[in-house]
Amino acid sequence: MELAEKQARLEQIADSIKNRNIDIGIAKTCTNPVPGVGNPDAKIVFIGEAPGAQEDKMGEPFVGASGKFLDEMLQSIGLKRADVFITNIVKFRPPDNRDPKPEEIKACLPSLLEQLEVIQPKLVVFLGRHAMGVFFPELKISEAHGKPQKRTVKTNGQARLEAVFLPLYHPAAALYNGSMRQTLLDDFAQIPKILELIK
Fold this sequence. Notes:
This protein is an alpha/beta fold. It has a single domain (3-197), classed as Uracil-DNA Glycosylase, subunit E (3-Layer(aba) Sandwich). Helix content is 47%, strand content 17%. It contains 10 helices and 6 strands, in the order H-H-E-E-H-H-E-H-E-H-H-E-E-H-H-H. A 6-stranded mixed beta sheet has the order 1-3-2-4-6-5. A hairpin with a 2-residue loop joins strand 5 and strand 6 (158-168). The longest helix has 18 residues, at 102-119. The chain is globular.
């Protein structure tokens, strides 16, 4: 798919999310839907769990304190936001930042899969255990972080995307726990090497 076509398809998906076409309560109660931002041709897609208060205000993912740390980590491997695509499993902020409910995840998942299908990234990075758990419910983040997993994502028996997935701790974890910061930076440092190995 050409870049212009990818861009157009992603804008269609984003418009549908912004128009709150997903039939769940939080789509109506949030201030701004947060479809995701970034490069339609990105080799890496970062997936968080759901927008927080800052994201809800701005309509963009990872713009609060954890977003600043994400920018710092991107910089540490020579990347910036414009090089990657950043989104969440759930596209609307759950009230009081509660965890998304299973039905909210289920309702938002088709939009995320469409985004991944259009972008066709080589590497999908999960930011936090909740995002990882949607695709890899059997894994524990304490054991899986920093370890790439290859998998084909299927829906209704149809292959939608074949990619390498990398679970990481959520950047917010580093804000509360100093030792976690180094773990995240170390795991992040592997990203260029993992990309090199994916052909």
